[in-house]
Automatic annotation (TrEMBL), chain A:
<dbReference type="GO" id="GO:0005730">
    <property type="term" value="C:nucleolus"/>
</dbReference>
<keyword id="KW-0235">DNA replication</keyword>
<dbReference type="Pfam" id="PF14629">
    <property type="entry name" value="ORC4_C"/>
</dbReference>
<dbReference type="GO" id="GO:0051258">
    <property type="term" value="P:protein polymerization"/>
</dbReference>
<dbReference type="InterPro" id="IPR003593">
    <property type="entry name" value="AAA+_ATPase"/>
</dbReference>
<dbReference type="InterPro" id="IPR027417">
    <property type="entry name" value="P-loop_NTPase"/>
</dbReference>
<keyword id="KW-0238">DNA-binding</keyword>
<dbReference type="InterPro" id="IPR016527">
    <property type="entry name" value="ORC4"/>
</dbReference>
<dbReference type="GO" id="GO:0006270">
    <property type="term" value="P:DNA replication initiation"/>
</dbReference>
Automatic annotation (TrEMBL), chain B:
<feature type="region of interest" description="Disordered">
    <location>
        <begin position="184"/>
        <end position="315"/>
    </location>
</feature>
<feature type="region of interest" description="Disordered">
    <location>
        <begin position="402"/>
        <end position="482"/>
    </location>
</feature>
<dbReference type="GO" id="GO:0005524">
    <property type="term" value="F:ATP binding"/>
</dbReference>
<dbReference type="InterPro" id="IPR015163">
    <property type="entry name" value="Cdc6_C"/>
</dbReference>
<comment type="subunit">
    <text>Component of ORC, a complex composed of at least 6 subunits: ORC1, ORC2, ORC3, ORC4, ORC5 and ORC6. ORC is regulated in a cell-cycle dependent manner. It is sequentially assembled at the exit from anaphase of mitosis and disassembled as cells enter S phase. Interacts with CDC6 and KAT7/HBO1. Interacts with LRWD1 predominantly during the G1 phase and with less affinity during mitosis, when phosphorylated.</text>
</comment>
<dbReference type="InterPro" id="IPR050311">
    <property type="entry name" value="ORC1/CDC6"/>
</dbReference>
<dbReference type="GO" id="GO:0033314">
    <property type="term" value="P:mitotic DNA replication checkpoint signaling"/>
</dbReference>
<keyword id="KW-0460">Magnesium</keyword>
<dbReference type="GO" id="GO:0005664">
    <property type="term" value="C:nuclear origin of replication recognition complex"/>
</dbReference>
Length: 436, 863
């Protein structure tokens, strides 16, 4: 009886937990405008006022939102647009055009996309007809026709704005800014970029036409706020179906926030990056460990997730190498020490390896040269070593100059964790003179 | 299109016929007739004074049209030449593009205009005459025949004097009349005569008719004329003369009754037709024909009233049959009317709005726009009662009617079912196929109108214009549903005035430059010569604005006849996709033609380098000249070469940023043609900027005086860019509004607000970015500084920095940073451009440089 009950309990738990995971993962992965904004109230107000003025008064504007990656630029603009569209007098009076510098890689594509999104006259179905020049003059004509009071304002959102500045002559930017500075269809041009030197990229005429409004998002919060964000991100919303479970979950999150080791983990993470996206990554890893048998997140989960996040990828690769390959890496390390970071070739490495093998013949099998060569090439494929110049057909592979892409500390750390490493090899690693 | 061979292709010989009359004073031999013999064929064309002739021009398809006034041989010159004096006519395609809208409607294919412009050179070489052409004068209420097989007949209805289209004066009509008679007596066959109006109408009558028939004219003008049955019409004319006035007044009454007086009734009719008639276009017929029955008895209208009764009795089922019968009757009626009222302002009132308004989806207002749209495409959906709309719709209907009727006349009988088919098909296509994210808010109709013309060209031949006439699509962003709010507070008002787009009444501080440019262009206009001017100056110094102002003033002067009228064209190098597109743009703005870049260049060269009949100076503004630079510099060469030719009458104003552009990038032969008429706009000084701000804020007290002075000085010190100055002030008003607690009475914009705005715009964000970066990022920057100091270089590899970083972390008690973490930090800083890094493919070996000065980093890291 009791076992059946617990079984049904488990079922409920499984159901609930999958829901929890869905809700939280959506929160972490989607830049949904439903989530809260953290610490950008001033910037948000600036932006929304600007958009409102365009939408309601028909005032043209241009603004750049600048901030490092993951600082919430897109979230900010999505929030602002959502709020703007909720205003009744605005919702059907505004057109939006979304462009991304990674997708619209030149002005030709960008123009077609604008025309398509505005659904102008030369759009048939999904296709835009006409040549580049025609499209440009058509669009300019269309935008020129309007005036402040009667035309529908258009909001241009240019994601990855810096890439648009690399277009030929910056024609698109010039024209957009020019329209926003002249009595034509009201435009709000909003650029999102992570580059702080964006204004230097603009050509002088384009720059003069840009209004020089910049909204900076700088992740300017401290650790206490970071903790608060952490808590808010993990808490379940009030509209979650099972009230009891929600309470329990949120309580456990509260405990987690107060836990010392969790704070330590978060502090470490915070020190590395203030980026909210990396926090989401951490939480995602921790969340994946929640199962029916382990329904609530614990400090251990967090620690494990953090370890996972801060792992050194190259050290992991070194762990999977064969003893011969390890030996080659150690030989390269010694060469680096002796020749002060000068590049080496296979022959040098092989000689160094031979020296070691002759001294300690019992511990390492003396491989044939072609086998060592194979191991060497494998290291090159793993990009642990890198040729100095491009491989050409006529250079002999033995004499091609190479560089090691591992730091000494990395090698030593990796060796310490390397399973079943022969003691002689370990000793050889610590000192190149150990065979003496 | 007819193709008129010119002399180049077939050799023609010109010889005088008859004896000359000698004009002693001018040493002219005046002739009455000339014969043209085409080599190879036996035909000989005799051209007499008073006939209409085609004259060789730029365009082989559209030669110039003129009336021959005089033929003479000029003895004063050593090689005596056959000369002719002509009265020009002008084709629509020769009218400057900028003034074409004055016509207010689409020109018919064979419509020409009496060119009433005395300044035009009317003395031509007689050997440029190609041959005869038939020109027919139409009264203003007559309808231009839309489709004529014979392309040799041209119609003149209006006169054009470079400013406005006017109806032909009665005297001219009389003249045409005579000519026509003469022509007919000579060539009884092959000439399809038009009704000839008697210009002897009392003005009082005209006035009455004008008032009465404001709306009816639109109707009558759209009805087709009868080119195929001249005899029948002749009879009808006589018939019409027998009953001078009644039909005319009757129609106008009937119309006003239908459209204005009783909206209720028309509404009823509309609904009736909506319910009953399957053919949408039959509706105006019904309207038209049934209303006479409601009116007083007719004098002429035996046929008509019976027809109307027929119509009334007819059940909706037999509507179609009726419909085919009605137009024939109606045309007779219209003909009568036309003969009676030669002068009527119909062409003015009947202009339907050609710009299709995009349909609004908004539910609240859905009804009205839909009705409007419906008027153009789907007349049966109209629900609104407003008389205005009804009127509008009737006009539109009549347009359709006119089209469909002329159609019927052409092929005798076009089944009504087919028309309804095609129109219903249009309707189907007018439903947008894909509801997109934005499409639901967008102009549907624009898209659909395009589509219908694409997809059903064969079914609706009347609506697709002839291929030769360019489709004047007017691209437009849809208009907003709610009007933009007007500024409420002082600050909002100030912000509006401070926007760069706000056009001030005058341009302060550029009086001298204005005067110079004005004088330059004016002198060229007065002398009928050409020239170039190069204007330079840093961005935001008012170059383009000043030139625009000059052009505006000159256009006003031209309207007041102080200077000769001119054509103004503007191109912008930045608004071109490719330098050679400039030809395309110029050609399109000049003539409305579309061509490829190479062809356009040829056409323009031909236009500017050969003599033209209608000489009008062209003023060309080339903005952002430096972008027209090409390897061969052929564009610049052409632009500067054309004005040097006497025939071109071209004034080129060029604008660029750099003062020494001609010396720096132009070849000698190009810069030499540009000449030395240069002007440079200096950056605004602080007092000038202050003056600009004060003039913009003349009647708005929003700024403290000190604040204005501050911003003027700041900007003058930085760049002297007026745009910057205005933008800062605009931002300052916003800051002032935010900071103010009471939204109803915000104070003046103070120095503090302006300083904040200046800070926002000009302060570098690097330091704040460093301050706000994470601990690891900061220590990485420190490591870079340490490595730089160690090596004495401004560049280091990642590996070097990493070892420093590890050491630093150990010193500061931070956890050991793994390579991956450090690499992430490095690329993060690189993406912000705090660091300049190579591509991360290089891994440990990638080179790192600071993008900020070391002092700045130190300063930022200090706190």
């Amino acid at each position: 009886m009791s076992s059946r009950k617990s079984k049904s309990n488990n079922l409920i738990h499984a159901e609930l937990l999958s829901q929890v995971q869905r809700v939280l993962r959506e929160r972490f992965c989607h830049q949904s405008p439903h989530s809260n904004l953290f610490g950008v109230q001033v910037q948000y107000k600036h932006l929304i006022e600007l958009l409102k003025r365009t939408a309601i008064h028909g005032e043209s504007n241009s603004v750049l939102i600048i901030g490092p990656r993951g600082s919430g630029k897109t979230t900010l603009i999505n929030h602002a647009l959502k709020e703007l569209m909720e205003i009744e007098e605005v919702s059907e009076n505004v057109l939006q055009v979304h462009l991304n510098g990674l997708l619209q890689i030149n002005d030709k594509i960008a123009l077609k996309e604008i025309t398509r999104q505005l659904n102008l006259e030369n759009v048939v179905g999904d296709k835009v007809f006409g040549s580049f020049a025609e499209n440009l003059s058509f669009l300019l004509e269309a935008l020129k026709k309007g005036d402040r009071s009667s035309s529908c304002p258009v909001i241009f959102i240019l994601d990855e704005f810096d890439l648009f500045a690399h277009h030929k002559n910056q024609t698109l930017l010039y024209n957009l800014f020019d329209i926003s500075q002249s009595a034509q269809t009201p435009l709000a041009v909003i650029g999102l970029t992570c580059r702080l030197d964006i204004l230097e990229l603009l050509e002088k005429r384009v720059k003069s036409r840009f209004s020089h409004r910049q909204i900076h998002l700088m992740n300017s919060f401290g650790f206490p706020q970071y903790l608060k964000i952490f808590k808010e991100q993990l808490s379940l919303p009030a509209e979650f179906p099972d009230k009891l479970f929600t309470e329990k979950w949120n309580e456990s999150i509260q405990c987690l926030t107060e836990d010392r080791s969790v704070r330590e983990v978060l502090q470490k993470h915070f020190n590395v990056s203030k980026n909210l996206r990396s926090l989401h990554m951490l939480l995602m890893l921790a969340l994946n460990r929640v199962t029916t048998s382990h329904p609530f997140m614990t400090a251990a989960d967090m620690m494990e997730a953090h370890q996972f996040c801060s792992m050194d990828s190259k050290a992991n690769i070194v762990h999977g190498l064969s003893v011969l390959e390890i030996c080659l890496i150690i030989a390269m390390k010694h060469l680096n020490d002796i020749y002060e970071e000068e590049p080496f070739n296979f022959q040098m490495v092989y000689n160094e390896f031979q020296k070691f093998v002759q001294r300690k013949a019992h511990s390492v099998y003396n491989f044939e040269k072609p086998v060592v060569m194979k191991a060497f090439e494998h290291l090159q494929q793993l990009e642990l070593i890198r040729p100095m110049e491009r491989t050409s057909v006529n250079t002999q592979r033995e004499y091609q100059l190479m560089k090691l892409l591992l730091d000494n500390t990395q090698i030593m750390n990796a060796l310490q964790k390397y399973p079943n490493c022969p003691t002689d090899v370990r000793q050889w690693a610590t000192s190149s003179l150990s065979w003496l | 299109m007819a193709y008129y061979p010119t002399r180049l292709k077939t050799r023609q010989t010109y010889s005088w016929v008859g004896r000359p009359l000698l004009d002693q004073k001018l040493h002219y031999h005046i002739y009455k007739e000339m014969s043209v013999k085409i080599e190879g064929s036996l035909t000989e064309i005799h051209i007499q004074v008073g006939q209409f002739v085609l004259i060789e021009g730029d365009d082989d398809e559209n030669p110039y049209v003129a009336k021959l006034v005089e033929l003479f041989e000029d003895d004063s010159e050593p090689h005596s030449k056959k000369r002719a004096r002509v009265q020009w006519f002008i084709r629509f395609c020769e009218v400057p593009v900028s003034k074409r809208h004055l016509l207010g409607r689409k020109p018919a294919a064979q419509e020409i205009f009496w060119y009433d412009y005395p300044a035009c050179n009317s003395n031509i070489n007689a050997e440029t005459i190609i041959g005869h052409v038939q020109v027919v004068a139409l009264g203003p209420d007559e309808v231009l025949p839309m489709d004529l097989k014979d392309e040799k007949i041209l119609f003149v209805k209006l006169s054009w004097n470079e400013k406005a289209f006017r109806p032909l004066s009665p005297e001219l009509f009389a003249e045409f009349d005579k000519l026509q008679e003469a022509a007919r007596s000579q060539k009884p066959v092959g000439v399809k005569t038009k009704s000839i109006e008697s210009p002897s109408r009392t003005t009082a009558e005209h006035a009455i008719k004008r008032i009465e028939s404001r709306h009816s004219t639109s109707k009558s003008r759209r009805t087709p004329s009868h080119p195929v049955t001249p005899r029948a019409k002749k009879k009808l004319e006589l018939n019409g003369l027998g009953f001078p006035r009644t039909p005319n007044t009757r129609i106008s009454q009937q119309n006003s009754g239908a459209s204005l007086d009783s909206p209720g009734r028309s509404k009823r009719k509309v609904t009736l037709s909506e319910i009953t008639s399957p053919t949408k276009r039959s509706q105006p017929d019904r309207l038209h024909t049934s209303s006479p029955a409601l009116k007083a008895p007719q004098k002429t209208g035996e046929i008509q009233s019976s027809c109307a009764k027929d119509d009334k009795k007819a059940s909706p089922d037999c509507h179609r049959i009726l419909r085919t019968r009605v137009p024939a009757l109606k045309t007779t009626e219209i003909c009568e009317e036309r003969t009676l009222t030669p002068i009527r302002g119909g062409w003015k009132s009947s202009v339907p709005s050609v710009v299709l308004k995009p349909e609004n989806i908004k539910k609240r207002e859905a009804e009205e726009p839909e009705a409007q749209d419906g008027a153009t495409t789907t007349p049966h959906r109209i629900h609104r009662k407003s008389s205005l709309l009804t009127l509008n719709r009737i006009r539109q209907q009549l347009r359709f009617l006119g089209n469909s009727k002329s159609n019927q006349e052409e092929d005798e009988f076009l089944p009504a079912a087919e028309i309804s088919d095609s129109s219903s098909e249009e309707e189907e296509t007018s439903i947008p196929p894909l509801p997109r994210r934005t499409s639901s808010r967008l102009s549907r109709n624009l898209c659909s109108s395009m589509k219908s013309s694409l997809q059903t060209p064969s079914k609706t031949p009347k609506k697709t214009p002839k291929p030769s006439t360019p489709r004047h699509a007017t691209p437009q962003i849809r208009s907003r549903n709610l009007a933009a709010q007007e500024p409420a507070s002082v600050l909002e008002e100030a912000r509006l005035r401070l926007h760069v787009s706000a056009v001030p009444e005058t341009l302060p501080c550029r009086e001298q430059e204005f005067q110079n440019i004005y004088n330059f262009v004016e002198s060229k206009l007065l002398d009928h010569t050409g020239g170039c001017m190069y204007i330079s100056g840093v961005p935001g110094t008012g170059k383009t604005a000043t030139v625009h102002e000059v052009i505006r003033c000159l256009q006003q002067a031209a309207q007041a006849n102080d200077v000769p009228s001119f054509q103004y064209i503007e191109v912008n190098g930045m608004k071109l996709t490719e330098p050679h597109q400039v030809y395309v743009q110029i050609l399109q703005k000049l003539t409305g033609q579309k061509a490829t870049a190479n062809h356009a260049a040829e056409l323009l060269a031909k236009r500017f380098l050969t003599r033209r009949s209608s000489q009008e100076t062209t003023v060309l503004l080339v903005d952002e000249l430096d972008l027209l630079w090409t390897q061969k510099q052929d564009i610049m060469y052409n632009l500067f070469d054309w004005p040097t030719h006497k025939e071109a009458q071209l004034v080129v104003l060029t604008i660029a940023n750099t003062m020494d552009l001609p010396e720096r990038i132009m070849m000698n032969r190009v810069s030499s043609r540009l000449g030395l008429t240069r002007m440079s706009f200096q950056p605004y000084t602080h007092s000038q900027l202050q003056q600009i701000l004060i003039s913009r804020l003349k009647h708005v007290k929003a700024f403290e005086d000190d604040a204005i002075q501050l911003v003027a000085r700041k900007v003058a010190a930085l760049s002297g860019d007026a745009r910057r100055c205005l933008d800062i002030c605009r931002r300052a008003t916003e800051i002032c509004e935010f900071s103010c607690q009471k939204p109803d009475s915000p104070g003046l914009v103070t120095v503090a607000h302006l300083l904040q705005a200046v800070d926002e715009m000009f302060s570098s964000s690097y330091i704040t970015a460093i301050k706000n970066s994470s601990v690891l990022e900061q220590s990485f920057l420190r490591a870079i500084l340490a490595e730089f100091r160690r090596s004495g270089l401004e560049e280091a590899t990642f590996q070097q920095v990493y070892s420093q970083h590890v050491a630093l972390c150990r010193m500061e008690g931070l956890p050991y940073p793994t390579m991956s973490e450090t690499m992430a930090v490095c690329s993060h800083l690189g993406s912000c451009r705090l660091l300049l890094v190579e591509s991360s493919r290089n891994d440990l070996l990638l080179r790192v440089r600071l993008n900020v000065s070391q002092d700045d980093v130190l300063y930022a890291l200090k706190e």
